[in-house]
Model the fold of this input.
Amino acid sequence: MSQHENHHATSVIAVDWGTSSLRGARLDAQGRALEERAFARGIMTVPPSEFASVFEALFGDWMSTEGTLCLISGMAGSRQGWVEAPYCACPAGFDELAGQLAWLPQGALNPKGHRIAIVPGMSSEEAGVPDVMRGEEVQIFGAMQLSGWQNGLFVLPGTHSKWAVVQDGRITSFKSFMTGEVFAALSQHTILAKTIATDAPFDEAAFARGVANAQGPAGLLHHAFSARTLSLFGRMQAGPLASYLSGLVIGEELRAQTIGPVAEVVLVGSPGLNQRYSLALHELGLRCQTFGSEATWRGLAALAAKVNA
Amino acid sequence: MSQHENHHATSVIAVDWGTSSLRGARLDAQGRALEERAFARGIMTVPPSEFASVFEALFGDWMSTEGTLCLISGMAGSRQGWVEAPYCACPAGFDELAGQLAWLPQGALNPKGHRIAIVPGMSSEEAGVPDVMRGEEVQIFGAMQLSGWQNGLFVLPGTHSKWAVVQDGRITSFKSFMTGEVFAALSQHTILAKTIATDAPFDEAAFARGVANAQGPAGLLHHAFSARTLSLFGRMQAGPLASYLSGLVIGEELRAQTIGPVAEVVLVGSPGLNQRYSLALHELGLRCQTFGSEATWRGLAALAAKVNA
Done:
């Protein structure tokens, strides 16, 4: 047990440090955010030697109280992050995650000797192919607490969406889907870029049509081309086309998830993605409970409580 | 009937003018290429007013014999091409295609009054969603003649692959798959770009593994992520990864084609794509006959013979 773990903190700082964004919160005793900060300082923008100084500039004031504990989830624990926190293998529960925190030793990585630990990501393996997540595992454990679900399917939409199976409070397996990134690549770097207005307002009817069309058996490579031909034949304008393509890609994710039949899932994402996935799930006859950043804070707060116990 | 059609040409020039490339051939009486030329002058590189001058610079010498007929297939007949040749709707046979040639009138579009016609593309519609091809229809009719098949499944791999059903010598329906373009977008414009050596030599074993993995039910959005994780876990190097991803995307195309069970298909593509698709088809227990540019020349020659008859 690290010397850090014997420390009884009164203050907890939660940070979600992802590839392209960075969010932090000061938490109350119930794991709710008293104050939040967000920056466009994802790990892609931070050179390896500058994590400590970037952290200090953005959150140093929050760490000034003696004994303050900071837990960081997300890509900050990847090989390109602050310090590598090796993946925790599925099936795994909250205790395994808490037991594999990567503490930042005082020194070059942590000049001020702050009490900071990075939460490991998780890995899952199927048929010889590994899968990984970093940050979503904390959201899932937080969402378990918020929803009261100890069993079920947890869906985390994003650049690389995650579908995780939870049994008896443990994450038993999960799958990634490159949904957000494929949508961006299709809409910006293929022939579809010519006719799609990616900044158009969301069009619910066009989105729903995309979700429905994606359920056909011919797959995304075929269906994506319909965003080209509907435009070519003047049957859909550039604005709705963006929502239609979004529906096709999210619809493909829903079509292809192989967890099995469920009636309801827990959805944890940004407000915009939660809206789209709720609509898509509803379109396919599924219900969902939705959570946002509070799941991250709640998950990190629970880990902090365990460390401080 | 155009005055052009009464002309009895002795010479036939066949041109396949696509989005990114331009190929032409002088044909003999049997529709074989006596001489071929290829240029990186796809229609994307040609401003609307310059088609005639580009054509003249590249093929003018071939047109100098009185009565020479030139037939052009491909994107030159699109709205962004030389002159628009409206789509011929499925089901359609060789006669419908020949009957809808778009002749270039003498004038600004055709200052020298050459005897040039553009072959229409074809359209297919399913469940309210149109599909289109330009150029591939000529390859299919050419491959019908070369293979002797009047019934069967014709596969044309490429940027936007086509799978066409032929019955009694007519194309009854077809589907497009954005395979080539999605492979390029995934390998260049997503996180996979970091760890894939797109210029690596072809690795047959990695390709076959990709084809096999793509047959799983979780779909391309999931399987593509395995190209990330196999690299992350040091289980596949950057060179083989390019072939693996190619196998995943081509394997998804094969998985998702919904034409029904067949034992053998006709494959018409470039040597490199024919190699990959032959391997992938074989991997899934299908046989194929393969043809290359000779299918284009043979198809255009057959149309020319009809015009000159």
